[in-house]
């Protein structure tokens, strides 16, 4: 079994006129693609790629916006046996261009595909593509009147251990690394997560998280082929790279149109929802206390577009306990999925390890994994592979995640990264869980606080970089934080100083994880000044 044959089986089982993909246009109309349209578009892409000389095993980089043509292009690449290298759209921004060039230089793709709406940004990397071609994905999507049998000549049979896709790690701690995921890796995770979600052909899922990330690829692109549900897109994503506020503003309207049955968000999305709801409740008479709880829950779900949603998921990072509690009180139970790119996505669902053919255990406080979901390795990076792979007594390959956890019976809950802990100058160790707790406590002080980064490696005490909304009153907020800090942490975990920074200075991965190492380097002088003044 491989993704191409899985797609063929899907076409055999489904009504070809059934809607597979819906694009919500900016003018409020809908553009629908049936399963027949989907296969036609993907086959046209496969034919075009083949005529460009792309063959089995070639890398084809794609900068996929969350739009239908990205799905058509991804599948077309896979059908001919080439390997898509999905690159996060956010890397086209100035701050991401260094990583973008590293990725292209590392895998040396034969072709780079991008949506036409991104084309004006592409000249930034044009000089770097010596042998590559920048092609607009729309140009591949010509209609064809040829019979389906005609396109089978472009299909390439692939084995379960053949490379399927190569996303790059987000680079929170260093150089982005190409993660080689096989057909078996992806199929294993699809079987596991669709069973956990009890996903059927009747689901409606909105694709809006970066398609360069494994969580979105498994949830929408690969997941749809496996389970047969309908995926929705919104045209507003075309403007999001330049004006993300516009997408945020229209997001509730989009959700109301989609009426998703399953909704997946990263923790920052859930926090954003909570802050928005809290702000609106405060505007109500008596802060909404006179409204019956059941009516409040119904109104909020309707406002968010969640009236038909049966499963709510948080993925890609650890969700705040406060957010979980907040939504639970509204009748929205947010399920937590933990996983990594290196394991083709999801490993646990609410702490329960996801089978089949995988084993998770804890070795010296680190999560380790054995089984069909474990990547083939990092592309052309033997030193990195040596760091994460070992073998057990029966010769099975063990993948060391680098993540810490706590166990609750058979359940495993992610708590942080092994490398995120550090020692103070006096030798006392500050563990990752405590750092995360302190950062969360700081965020609770005021809704205008977006993020906090704790510093203290080989220093006498802890200090913090605190990132706030740009339109906040720095002096007033600074005084509020000073009053609250004595209640944050105890003993060696007390914060002795902090500095407020504009949220525009915050550097994050496309899945909204903080690039701590990069920020500490960027604000090294600021951190030094904090220690000199305490």
Question: Can you tell me about this structure?
Answer:
With 534 residues, this protein is an alpha/beta fold. The strands form 7 sheets. Strands 11-12-13-14-15 form a 5-stranded mixed β-sheet. Strands 16, 17, 19, 20 and 21 form a 5-stranded antiparallel β-sheet that branches. Strands 2-1-10-9 form a 4-stranded mixed β-sheet, sandwiched between helices. Helix 12 (321-329) links the parallel strand 12 (311-314) and strand 13. The protein is globular, with a radius of gyration of 24 Å. The model is unreliable at 127-132 (pLDDT under 50).
Radius of gyration: 24 Å
Q: Mean pLDDT, nearest integer?
A: 88
| Order of strands across the main sheet | 11-12-13-14-15
Put simply, the count of helices is: 17
**Structure class:** alpha/beta
Q: Provide the CATH architecture of the domain at 421-532.
A: 2-Layer Sandwich
Structure, briefly:
The chain has 534 residues and is α/β, with parallel strands linked by helices. Among the domains are: 259-337, no CATH class; 345-418, Roll (Luciferase, domain 3), CATH 2.30.38; 421-532, ANL, C-terminal domain (GMP Synthetase, Chain A, domain 3). The longest helix has 17 residues, at 35-51.
């Amino acid at each position: 079994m491989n993704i191409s044959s899985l797609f063929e089986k899907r076409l055999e089982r489904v009504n070809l006129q059934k809607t597979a993909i819906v694009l919500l246009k900016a003018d409020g109309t809908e553009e629908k693609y049936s399963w027949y349209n989907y296969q036609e578009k993907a086959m046209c892409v496969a034919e075009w790629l083949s005529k460009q000389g792309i063959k089995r095993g070639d890398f084809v980089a794609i900068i996929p916006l969350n739009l239908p043509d990205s799905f058509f292009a991804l599948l077309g690449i896979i059908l001919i046996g080439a390997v898509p290298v999905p690159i996060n759209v956010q890397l086209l921004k100035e701050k991401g261009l260094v990583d973008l060039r590293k990725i292209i230089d590392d895998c040396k793709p034969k072709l780079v595909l991008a949506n036409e709406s991104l084309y004006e940004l592409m000249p930034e990397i044009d000089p770097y593509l010596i042998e590559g071609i920048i092609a607009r994905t729309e140009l591949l999507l010509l209609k064809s009147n040829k019979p389906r049998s005609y396109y089978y000549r472009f299909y390439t049979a692939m084995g379960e251990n053949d490379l399927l896709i190569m996303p790059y790690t987000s680079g929170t701690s260093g150089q982005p690394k190409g993660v080689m995921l096989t057909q078996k890796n992806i199929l294993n995770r699809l079987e596991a997560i669709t069973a956990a979600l009890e996903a059927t052909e009747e689901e409606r899922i909105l694709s809006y998280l970066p398609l360069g990330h494994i969580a979105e690829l498994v949830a929408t692109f690969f997941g749809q082929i496996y389970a047969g549900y309908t995926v929705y897109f919104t045209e507003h994503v075309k403007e999001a790279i330049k004006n993300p506020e516009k997408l945020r503003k229209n997001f509730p309207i989009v959700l109301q149109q989609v009426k998703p049955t399953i909704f997946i968000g990263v923790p920052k999305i859930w926090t954003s929802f909570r802050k928005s709801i809290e702000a609106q409740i405060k505007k109500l008479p008596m802060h909404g206390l006179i409204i019956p709880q059941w009516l409040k829950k119904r109104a909020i779900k309707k406002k968010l577009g969640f009236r038909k949603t049966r499963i709510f998921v948080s993925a890609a990072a650890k969700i705040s306990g406060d957010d979980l509690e907040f939504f639970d009180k509204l009748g929205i139970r947010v399920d937590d999925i933990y996983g990594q790119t290196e394991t083709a996505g999801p490993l646990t669902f609410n702490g329960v390890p996801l089978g089949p053919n995988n084993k998770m255990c804890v070795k010296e406080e680190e999560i380790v994994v054995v089984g069909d979901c474990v990547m083939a390795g990092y592309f052309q990076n033997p030193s990195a592979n040596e760091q994460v792979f070992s073998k057990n007594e029966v010769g099975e390959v063990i993948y060391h995640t680098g993540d810490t956890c706590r166990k609750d019976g058979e359940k495993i809950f992610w708590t942080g990264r092994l490398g995120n802990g550090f020692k103070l100058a006096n030798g006392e160790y500050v563990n990752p869980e405590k750092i995360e707790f302190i950062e969360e406590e700081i965020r609770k002080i005021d809704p205008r606080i977006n993020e906090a980064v704790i510093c203290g490696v080989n220093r006498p005490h802890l200090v913090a970089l605190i990132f706030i909304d740009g339109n906040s009153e720095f002096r007033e907020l600074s005084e509020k934080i000073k009053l609250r800090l004595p209640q944050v942490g105890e003993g060696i975990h007390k914060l002795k100083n902090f500095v407020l920074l504009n949220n525009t200075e915050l550097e994050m991965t496309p899945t909204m994880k903080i690039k701590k190492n990069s920020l500490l380097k960027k604000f090294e002088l600021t951190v030094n000044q904090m220690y000199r003044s305490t």
